[in-house]
Amino acid sequence: MLNAQERAQVAQVWDLIAGHEAPFGAELLLRLFTVYPSTKTYFKHLGVFPDEVHLLSHGKRLLEAVGVAVLHMDNLRWALSPLADLHAHVLRVDPSNFPVVLASHLQGEYTVEMQAAWDKFLTGVAVVLTEKYR
């Protein structure tokens, strides 16, 4: 899926994200809810107006799952299988609505090449997470 240079760029961006999973993830969720308000129905446990603690907690879990995917880029299907089962069979959530927060936080460190590599990587993650719907 990714060539050696793209894999290195994904890993480099993840190194910049590491340690910031909760705030980045919370912002991803807030942007998701703003752009796609109907997605709030998939997060009923967060309530109609999620508080910061819940957003940070769930945002951290969300990005920790992305971190697992980064560590296992060569075998996303295996690494994400439990999460794919959960999304397809229990939650029935389509994870393809993954907004980009990286550029706003990483700014100059997040190059065009890194963005292209991450787009390709996240497409692979979305494919794995949604393939059990078929």
UniProtKB/TrEMBL annotation:
One of its GO terms (cellular component) is blood microparticle. InterPro entries: Globin, Globin-like_sf, Globin/Proto, Hemoglobin_a-typ, Hemoglobin_oxygen_transport. One of its GO terms (biological process) is hydrogen peroxide catabolic process. Keywords: Heme, Iron, Metal-binding, Oxygen transport, Transport. Residues 1-134 form the Globin domain. GO terms for molecular function: haptoglobin binding; heme binding; metal ion binding; organic acid binding; oxygen binding; oxygen carrier activity; peroxidase activity. Belongs to the globin family. This is Hemoglobin subunit mu. It comes from Rhinolophus ferrumequinum (Greater horseshoe bat).
